[in-house]
Design goal:
Rossmann fold, five-stranded parallel beta sheet, single chain, alpha/beta
């Protein structure tokens, strides 16, 4: 399934096959290098290898071959097109048919040719083609130059894929495609596809249940709820304590059913007692009901709490049972901490649980790995990623091409989503790169 709802492919790459002929001693042609780098750089941006679906023709067709029906179908089912413009592209009737087919199809779509202020045709210039020679469908676009022309009348040779200039331009194309695809999802085009494929997704659908607390923890609880909501989480809390025990239990159970994880803040004071019960308090009862669910649980108590000094015996035994891990066989994390870092402790736990849930929902429990590689070796890592997917292993990828410290939070999120790490190391530096 593509990233953009309602389409089979997110990207269609249109190019002249003469531009993909490899020079002697090279395994891959320039277009194939472009394709592999684009796929992996988008995967790094999205965090998963199989998020964006790209159609490209590797059959090396030439102008003598009839316009292939499978190619026409690929164009019709693609959200955007990347046009790799060159003298070979301009001279190819086949390429002109591809561009014309996509252009007419995009114009006829409810979405139109533009998504916001961006064209759905991404124009890449392999050489310094004069504007007067551009296909009419590319009018109004500026293009991403992948050539070394310095003057307007220079021909401009195509940049070597192992040069830093290539990498810089690839990042520009990646960012443009990223923006177009995300803008597309905000208002997906309605085409003749099943309803579930064109359904817009909401925001963060990971829900957190926050239990009732004693008066001494109300300020900390309020601050925690605010921090979680700022991060986009759905917080379920504020179950009104009814005066009748059964009504409170029913309301709590219903709220827990809607949550993915439960958080409970406890201290030496048990809180308000449930009317009609025998020495049972709202915070304790909600913990007990929560432990009967399959949801992961976190019990937080102040680091200075000495459970042996808790005045009420029943509540003291309850706390000691929780800390000893005897309250439930389900996943339960008992944490001691200060009120000053309470929010961060719980946010870290919630983020980790969300990552695990993502793996469970998306990958049906298959093994997941984080693949970390340098930019110069990423096309080889792409082959490894395909092999992993073929063997039912989900590869996630490092969010940065070089230095993960640039985005340590995103890297931390992705590490929390995987079970294994793979560091793909090659020979570096290479020709065209400076050592780092």
């Amino acid at each position: 399934m593509s990233f953009v709802p309602g389409y089979e492919y997110d990207i269609f790459i249109s190019y002249a096959h003469i531009d993909n002929v490899a020079f002697p001693g090279q395994a891959d042609g320039w277009i194939e290098q472009f394709y592999k780098n684009l796929v992996l750089m988008l995967a790094k941006r999205f965090g998963r290898m199989d998020t964006v679906k790209v159609w490209w023709d590797s059959k090396k067709l030439d102008g003598s071959v009839q316009f292939n029906q499978s190619i026409a179908s690929g164009i019709e089912k693609s959200a955007i097109m990347i046009c790799l413009n060159s003298p070979g592209y301009v001279a190819s009737q086949y390429c002109q048919m591809e561009l014309d087919t996509f252009y007419k199809k995009a114009i006829a779509d409810p979405q139109g040719l533009n998504v916001g202020d961006r064209s759905r045709i991404v124009h890449v210039l392999l050489n310094n083609i004069p504007h007067t020679q551009w296909p009419s469908e590319l009018s109004g676009t500026t293009g991403f130059p992948f050539h070394d022309a310095e003057e307007s009348d220079d021909f401009g040779d195509t940049i070597d894929p192992f040069f830093n200039e290539f990498r810089s331009q690839m990042q520009q194309v990646r960012d443009a495609v990223w923006n177009i695809l995300n803008d597309f999802r905000k208002k997906p085009a309605v085409i003749d596809e099943p309803e579930e494929l064109i359904r817009e997704e909401g925001g963060n659908d990971f829900s957190i249940y926050i239990g009732e607390v004693a008066d001494t923890l109300r300020t900390s609880r309020k601050r925690l709820i605010s921090e979680l909501e700022k991060k986009g989480y759905t917080v379920i809390c504020g179950i009104p304590p009814p005066d009748e025990a059964k009504a409170h239990e029913a309301a709590t159970i219903e709220a827990l059913k809607k949550s993915d994880v439960a958080i409970h803040l406890l201290d030496e004071y048990p809180g308000r007692e449930i009317v009609g019960s025998n020495d049972i308090w709202y915070p304790q009862k909600q913990v007990e009901l929560s432990l009967e669910t399959e949801n992961p649980q976190m019990i937080w108590v102040p680091s200075e709490l000495d459970t042996t000094t808790v005045e009420d015996e029943k509540y003291r035994l309850f706390l000691q049972k929780l800390e000893a891990g005897n309250a439930s066989a389900k996943e339960l994390e008992f944490v001691r901490g200060s009120k000053g870092n309470l929010s961060q402790q719980i946010i870290d736990f919630v983020d980790q649980m969300k990552g695990r849930q993502m793996i469970k929902n998306i990958d049906d429990g298959k093994l997941s790995v984080l693949l970390d590689t340098h930019f110069s070796d990423q096309i080889y890592a792409l082959d490894l990623s395909k092999m992993l997917l073929e063997n039912n292993i989900q590869p996630f990828v490092n969010p940065q091409e070089d230095d993960p410290r640039k985005n340590i939070n995103m890297l931390g999120d992705r590490i929390s989503q995987v079970r294994k790490l793979i560091f793909y190391m090659g020979m570096f530096p290479r020709s065209g790169f400076s050592s780092e």
